[in-house]
Amino acid sequence: MRRDDLYITVPSPFRCPISLDVMKSPVSLCTGVTYDRASIQRWLDSGNNTCPATMQVLQNKELVPNRNLQRLIQIWSDSVARRQVDAELAAPSSVDVPSQDQVKLLVKQLDNNCFSSLTKIVWFARESEENREFLARMDGFLNAVFDFMRNAESDIKLIEQIVRIMDLIQSKILDKKPLLESNCLSTILLVLQRGTLESQIQSLRLLESTAIDGESKLKIAEKEGLVVELVKSLNKEKDQRLIEASLSCLSAIIKPKRVKTKVIQYRIIPELKKLLSEPNMSVLIVEKSLKLLETLSFCKEGRVEIRHDSILLQAVVQKVLKVSNKSTEHAVTLLWSVCCLFREEKALEAVVSSSNGMTKFLLLMQSDFSSAIRQMSADLLKIFRVNSNSCLSSYDTKTTHIMPC
């Protein structure tokens, strides 16, 4: 199996006209030219009042997120990342991908020269959907892999190959209960702590695919050290693909009340606030962060922490109608939960003091969003009106019936 050298050509519309780098957070000026937020903000903060590309005098300095371009950049970036992984894991030109009969022999010989055998099995699995189906249904293969995970020692390279194989065939595995055993979870935790970026992302996808019911979610969350590592992976300095995978995994396990309480204890809400406050985060990260906060807002411990954080609440208001439809829906539901359903007074004050909040909720009432979102926006709008009449304490809204957990 041969592979060509990987050349990456960046489409010119994806480059910032100032830095010439791929834009992380594309925003447009009133002139219609799009820049990376960090670059154009520095230009404006330096006292300039012109568009760098056209030199037109700016009628206003508002930066409007270019969501369509950001989505295109995200799709392109994901594609490049996948190609890089494919290139790293592809079989060298001097080695042929093993046949099905050869794979059967490799599985029998896993105890001898294990790393080499696992590497060839990875090449085989990457070759086609048919090969992955073959591995998942092959007698004794999954048992052998599970045994390796149960008995894995500290050889991180070997463990990464095992996780890589499991990630490749995880959609074909009918019974994932062995992955919930303590030793198997310990192996996945080791990869999160010491593995490469790609193997960390693969282990998170594997965990997410395993969290299929309440029992599996609890087993994952109760594995010592695992939730801590998931929250650590949300650090804004981490690779955005790792952050996205961690957010997805946390969303998959967070439904049980005990899990919500645990992630709150490990300070997930401050990490989510940092992600929302960072201007260069991807649309997916914003959407998933707001979704997690929305889920936590229906838990008493989560509401208590959210209501006391005015900066977080104002950041949530700022995301309304700014990022994507999903982000707006999660943000509105979160704000409605703490302000209207549970009527947290400190949260009310923070939302009322946010800029452009009234305008946003007024626009949402007249938008094409679902009737539930429009009604929640109407409820939130009443907060501003009641506050302007100095009768916040008598606020009484007609709310949609959603029961807290």
From TrEMBL:
Keywords: Transferase, Ubl conjugation pathway. Its EC number is 2.3.2.27. InterPro entries: ARM-like, ARM-type_fold, ARM_PUB, PUB22/23/24-like, RING-Ubox_PUB, Ubox_domain, Znf_RING/FYVE/PHD. Pathway: Protein modification; protein ubiquitination. Pfam families: ARM_PUB (PF25598), U-box (PF04564). The keyword Transferase applies. Residues 9-83 form the U-box domain. It catalyses: S-ubiquitinyl-[E2 ubiquitin-conjugating enzyme]-L-cysteine + [acceptor protein]-L-lysine = [E2 ubiquitin-conjugating enzyme]-L-cysteine + N(6)-ubiquitinyl-[acceptor protein]-L-lysine. Functions as an E3 ubiquitin ligase. This is U-box domain-containing protein. It comes from Hibiscus sabdariffa (roselle).
